[in-house]
C-alpha cells in the first residue's frame, strides 16, 4: 500500500522535491561548466576531458542498478531508502570539492580526473536513486505522481540555476571569468554545502512518513540474484520502449548542455550582462513547465505529451541557427540578437523539460506492470535502470560534445573575437545535425509507450483486488 492515499499534502510535495536540489547542482556543474573548466581554464584537451567524463558516466551507470537493488533490499527501522540518504551526502560533498579544485591546483592527469568524477557520480547516485524510488511508494495516483515529478524537476532545476547564477554573477563573471580557474573552487565549495543540506533536509522531512520496517523482507543480496532481478526488470516491454526514447533524449540533452557555454560565447558572443540573463531564461522555462505539464498529461496523457514536447522543442531551437547560417539573423553580439535568441530558448527549453518529466513519470507506471507480472515491486531497480540509461546517454552526449569541439578545430584558450567563421559554422552544423536525429528518435519511441491512464488505473484495481483476496484467504478459518 502507498504511504499516502488521496491528495498529497503540500508540505510533502515541497520536502520530497527539495531532495532533487543536489542532483540539479551536480547536473549544472557536469553539464555546463566541467568541460569548459578543464578544457579552457586548465588547458586539457577537450576530447580527453569528454572521454574521462563519458567513462565515469558509463562506470556509474553499471553501478546504479546494483545500488537500486541494494536499496530495494535494505531492511532497517528507517525503511529501505533513508539509510542511504543519511550516509551518502557528506562523502559526496568532499568529492565534489576535489572535482573543482584538483590537489595542488594543478592540471590533473586523465586518470585522476576519471577517479574523482566516478566518485562524485556514484555517491550522487547513492542519494538520488533511493530518493526518487520513494515516489511510487508515496502515492499510486497517476496525476499525483506527475505532481511529485513536477516538484522534483522544479527543485532540481532551481539547484542548478542557483549555482549558475553564482557562477555568472559571483564566482566566474563574464566570458573571461569562465576561462580562468580561480572562481571554480568557490563554485565547488558552495555546491557541496547545498548538496548536503538538500539530501539530509529532504530525508529528515520525510522521516516520520517513510521510516519503519518494510511490509515484506526481501531475500538477502547475492550477485547472481541481483543481476537476475535487474535483467528481469529490464526485460519489461514497457521499460524497453521507454529506454529507447529516453536514450536519444538524454544524449541530446547531454550534448546541448556540454556545448551551451561554447555556443553562448563563440556563436552568439554574449557579453557579461547577457550571460547573466541565461539562467533567468532557464528558470522562467521551468516555471512555465510547472504550469503546463499537468494539463498536458490530463488532456493527452504522458506519451503524447512527450512527443509534442520533443518535436516542438527541436523545431523551435533550430530556427535561430538556421537564420544565423542563412544570413538573416541580427548582428551577433547585439542586444537584438540576444533578446531574440532567448525568446526561442524559453519556448524550446520549456518543451524540453516537459519531455523529461513525461518520461520520468512513465517509470512509476512500469513498477505496477512489473508487479502484476512477477508479484514483486522493484522501484529501485527501475529508477536505477533509468539512471543507467540516462548516464550512458549523457556520457555519450558529453563525449559527442567534445568531438564537436575537436572537429570544429576550436583552439584552447581561444578569444571569441579571434575565432574563424568557418569554425563557428562547423560547430553549428555538427550540433544541429546531431540534435535533429536524436530528437526524432526520442519522439518516435516515447510516443509508443504502451501504458496509458486507463490501463494504469485498471491495473491498480486488479492489484488491489488481488491483495484483498490474499488478506481474506489469510484470515478465513479452514
Explained architecture:
With 478 residues, the chain is an all-alpha fold. It has helices at residues 10-18, 21-41, 46-73, 82-87, 89-100, 110-133, 135-138, 142-171, 174-178, 184-210, 223-234, 237-267, 272-326, 335-374, 379-407, 421-446, 453-475. The model has no long low-confidence stretch (mean pLDDT 86).
In short:
With 478 residues, the chain is an all-alpha fold.
Judged by helices, strands and strand pairing, the structural class is mainly alpha
Shape, principal axes of CA atoms: globular
Largest sheet: none
Low-confidence residue ranges: none
Number of helices: 17
The radius of gyration is 22 Å
Strand content: under 5%
Number of strands: 0
Give helix and strand order, one letter per element, not per position: HHHHHHHHHHHHHHHHH
Mean pLDDT: 86
Query: Between the first and last Cα atoms, what is the distance in angstroms?
Result: 27 Å
Q: What is the share of helical residues?
A: over 70%
Task: Break the fold down into its secondary structure elements and pairings.
Elements (H helix, E strand, L loop, with lengths): L9 H9 L2 H21 L4 H28 L8 H6 L1 H12 L9 H24 L1 H4 L3 H30 L2 H5 L5 H27 L12 H12 L2 H31 L4 H55 L8 H40 L4 H29 L13 H26 L6 H23 L3
Amino acid at each position: 500500500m502507498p504511504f499516502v492515499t488521496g491528495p498529497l499534502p503540500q508540505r510533502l510535495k515541497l520536502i520530497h522535491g527539495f531532495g532533487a536540489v543536489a542532483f540539479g547542482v551536480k547536473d549544472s556543474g557536469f553539464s555546463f561548466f566541467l568541460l569548459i573548466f578543464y578544457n579552457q581554464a586548465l588547458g586539457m584537451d577537450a576530447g580527453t576531458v569528454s572521454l574521462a567524463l563519458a567513462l565515469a558516466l558509463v562506470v556509474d551507470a553499471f553501478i546504479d542498478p546494483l545500488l537500486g537493488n541494494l536499496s530495494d533490499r535494505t531492511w532497517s527501522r528507517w525503511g529501505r531508502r533513508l539509510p542511504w540518504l543519511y550516509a551518502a551526502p557528506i562523502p559526496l560533498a568532499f568529492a565534489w570539492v576535489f572535482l573543482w579544485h584538483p590537489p595542488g591546483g594543478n592540471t590533473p592527469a586523465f586518470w585522476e580526473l576519471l577517479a574523482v568524477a566516478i566518485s562524485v557520480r556514484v555517491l550522487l547516485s547513492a542519494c538520488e536513486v533511493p530518493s526518487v524510488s520513494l515516489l511510487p511508494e508515496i502515492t499510486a495516483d497517476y496525476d499525483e505522481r506527475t505532481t511529485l515529478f513536477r516538484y522534483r524537476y522544479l527543485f532540481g532545476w532551481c539547484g542548478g540555476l542557483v549555482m549558475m547564477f553564482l557562477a555568472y554573477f559571483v564566482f566566474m563573471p563574464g566570458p573571461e571569468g569562465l576561462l580562468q580557474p580561480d572562481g571554480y573552487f568557490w563554485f565547488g565549495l558552495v555546491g557541496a554545502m547545498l548538496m548536503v543540506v538538500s539530501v539530509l533536509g529532504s530525508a529528515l522531512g520525510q522521516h516520520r512518513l517513510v521510516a519503519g520496517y518494510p511490509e515484506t523482507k526481501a531475500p538477502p543480496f547475492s550477485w547472481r540474484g541481483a543481476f537476475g532481478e535487474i535483467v528481469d526488470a529490464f526485460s519489461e516491454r514497457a521499460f524497453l520502449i521507454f529506454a529507447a526514447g529516453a536514450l536519444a533524449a538524454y544524449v541530446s540533452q547531454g550534448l546541448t548542455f556540454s556545448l551551451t557555454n561554447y555556443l553562448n560565447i563563440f556563436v552568439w558572443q554574449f557579453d557579461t550582462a547577457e550571460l547573466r540573463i541565461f539562467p533567468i531564461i532557464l528558470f522562467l522555462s521551468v516555471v512555465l513547465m510547472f504550469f503546463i505539464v499537468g494539463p498536458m498529461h490530463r488532456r493527452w496523457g504522458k506519451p503524447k505529451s512527450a512527443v509534442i514536447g520533443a518535436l516542438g522543442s527541436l523545431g523551435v531551437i533550430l530556427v535561430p541557427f538556421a537564420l544565423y547560417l542563412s544570413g538573416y539573423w541580427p548582428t551577433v553580439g547585439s542586444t537584438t540578437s540576444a533578446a531574440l535568441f532567448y525568446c526561442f530558448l524559453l519556448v524550446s527549453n520549456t518543451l524540453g523539460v516537459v519531455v523529461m518529466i513525461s518520461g520520468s513519470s512513465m517509470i512509476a507506471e512500469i513498477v505496477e506492470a512489473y508487479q502484476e507480472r512477477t508479484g514483486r515491486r522493484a522501484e529501485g531497480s527501475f529508477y536505477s535502470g533509468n539512471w543507467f540509461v540516462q548516464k550512458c546517454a549523457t556520457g555519450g552526449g558529453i563525449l559527442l560534445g567534445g568531438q564537436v569541439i575537436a572537429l570544429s578545430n576550436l583552439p584552447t584558450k581561444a578569444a571569441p573575437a579571434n575565432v574563424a567563421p568557418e569554425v563557428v559554422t562547423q560547430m553549428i552544423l555538427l550540433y544541429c545535425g546531431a540534435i535533429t536525429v536524436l530528437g526524432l528518435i526520442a519522439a518516435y519511441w516515447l510516443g509508443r509507450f504502451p501504458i496509458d491512464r486507463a490501463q494504469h488505473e485498471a491495473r491498480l484495481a486488479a492489484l488491489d483486488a488481488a491483495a484483498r483476496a490474499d488478506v481474506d484467504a489469510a484470515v478465513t478459518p479452514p
